[in-house]
């Protein structure tokens, strides 16, 4: 089969590799019908995730068709159309039993495209398939469903829920890429009084307005003064960091009010300074996290009910074999206007 193979920082290639095979009783082999590219994949190519070794097939967000299952998989059958979650769960370790699937001790967690071969390929092996896939109703198209593999549950769990968004809050989202836009969508479920979005790219700020942002700002617009101006000088109740750079994290720490919450979602490859000399007295809560995908079934129900319009997130479409071109477009959002790209089997 063909797959996108990581060759080391800055290197990737769409090439022939052996077909995946069942390696354990809880595995499934899935034909990849739709796949997308994540900002985390760009971090891998930037050398920010050293656990990913050369030779690894990238990707952790896909919709596919089950081709075969191991003897231990009782809830899937050949021909089932499924969402392959970005998180795999053994289901029996301490963290899985607490619903913290991202911290799985039994061989799961974020493994696809990380410590095992991923889904940016024609076929993929899905470990722990009984707990790490979701059968999809026919009413949900591939393009909509694939956004539930990572960005929607990540934004919802690590951003909105960890941030404790409540009705009437002022929420600031720093970064209007796909994660930031999904954070806007899911924050609105809790009726905040306003959502402020900060980003460098005007095209992404325009997208943020379409997704429901009340105020959009560029870094040169003095975000601290602008946020204080709409909060009686206090600052934001909740700030969601959705970029993953030292500058954006440190900006978030200045925007949060005393007693507020800063939820870090971005993937960081470099140290950021935590200014405790300023924060120690302000009762600020800072959270970090890897998505657990425990909310995926609920988000899927909301998608079926029409509470999310994920289609507007997809700006570019490619055939699966055009994945190197898709990476180029996705990696230059300021020039291309790319939000989410989806690649489909021809």
TrEMBL record:
Enoyl reductase (ER) domain ranges (all copies): 7-343
Pfam families linked: ADH_N, ADH_zinc_N
A GO MF term: oxidoreductase activity
The family this protein is said to belong to: Belongs to the zinc-containing alcohol dehydrogenase family.
Domain of life: Bacteria
This protein's UniProt keywords: Metal-binding, Oxidoreductase, Zinc
Protein name: Alcohol dehydrogenase
Organism: Micromonospora halophytica
UniProt cofactor(s): Zn(2+)
